[in-house]
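Quick one:
INPUT:
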């Protein structure tokens, strides 16, 4: 990522002098928003000193953003909520059926999770969305770029090229608007997400993808004793993504693996990994499964969507409806 982009907003925050700012930036908190969504323990870890001082800085950052209308006030009227919901937009997946399942496509202001087994199509959906989000609104896009955080090394620009061509877009131009960040371990992922807001602004990104969201934490935190710590860090990470989605009115898409639950006697014994932490923060959870040469998608645990299933296919053009 481009290291020269640093949000200069931090020095406007009460209590943040040049030295403190420098330390925060070094620690990965390089914007006012980054500070506003940080945890006191994180800030304390970077600055040293008392946690109380860290909490105050976070509070000042929040107040600053609230004044600028960038952060939600603690109490807002239902009308304001309604207005905000009306500003919500959707990105087409390329399949009308999958869009219908999502009531029109992948929503901004929330997190959509695609989970499923190996080869179920999670990464293919992510690649397709990087292209479709660049389409003009009348074609189901948001006319903006995408940020792709790849934890698995499966990002393929050639595939993006292919899908862009199929959608009759200029592939070179399209690739220019997709920012890739390769992430190697869980701390790196946390750091990247902490500093994400300035890239969203600079690249006018309308979509942030994390493929996949918990595999690194899952691999690194092994054993029961480390579970609470892992869940807390995941909770922190996923809520930062949610805040980002709300503040910038962008879509966040995460992928997740399945975890086998051998004690399930009825229905499908698989669940997305990550437990309640991920479940509570995601607005939509879509379970993907191979179904012959096609894929099935089922919406689970949604507050306002009925339980339903649909099918789609993966082709050279990306994600598509099954041709009849
Ligand atoms: N160009 C293409 N044309 C048709 N099908 C393709 C193409 N590229 C990939 N696929 C299909 O997509 C599948 C891989 O899906 P994908 O990589 O999205 O899985 P995943 O859910 O991300 O799996 P994992 O858990 O391993 O990351 C392939 O097995 C293939 O069936
Ligand atoms: Mg994948």
């Amino acid at each position: 990522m481009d290291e020269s982009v640093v949000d200069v907003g931090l020095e406007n925050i009460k209590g943040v002098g040049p030295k403190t700012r420098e330390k925060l930036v070094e620690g990965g908190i390089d914007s006012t928003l980054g500070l506003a969504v940080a945890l006191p323990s994180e800030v304390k870890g970077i600055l040293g000193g008392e946690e109380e001082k860290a909490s105050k800085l976070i509070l000042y950052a929040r107040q600053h953003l609230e004044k600028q209308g960038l952060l939600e006030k603690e109490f807002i009227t239902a009308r304001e909520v309604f207005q905000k919901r009306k500003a919500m937009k959707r990105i087409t997946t390329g399949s009308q059926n999958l869009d219908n399942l999502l009531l029109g496509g992948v929503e901004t202001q929330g997190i959509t999770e695609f989970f499923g087994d190996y080869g179920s199509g999670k990464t293919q959906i992510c690649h397709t969305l990087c292209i479709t989000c660049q389409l003009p609104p009348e074609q189901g896009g948001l006319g903006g770029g995408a940020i792709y955080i790849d934890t698995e090394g499966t990002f393929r620009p050639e595939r993006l090229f292919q899908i862009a061509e199929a959608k009759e877009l200029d592939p070179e131009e399209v690739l220019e608007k997709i920012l890739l960040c390769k992430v190697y371990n869980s701390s790196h992922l946390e750091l990247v997400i902490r500093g994400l807001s300035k890239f969203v602004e600079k690249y006018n990104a309308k979509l942030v993808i994390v493929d996949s969201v918990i595999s690194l934490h899952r691999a690194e935190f092994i054993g029961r004793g480390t579970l609470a710590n892992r869940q807390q860090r995941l909770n922190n990470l996923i809520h930062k993504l949610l805040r980002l989605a709300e503040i910038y009115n962008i879509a966040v898409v995460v992928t997740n693996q399945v975890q086998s639950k051998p004690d399930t006697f009825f229905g499908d014994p698989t669940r997305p990994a990550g437990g309640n932490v991920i479940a509570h923060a995601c607005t939509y959870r879509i379970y993907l499964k191979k179904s012959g040469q096609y894929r099935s998608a089922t919406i689970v645990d949604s507050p306002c969507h009925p339980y339903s299933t649909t099918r789609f296919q993966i082709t050279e053009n990306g994600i598509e409806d099954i041709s009849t």
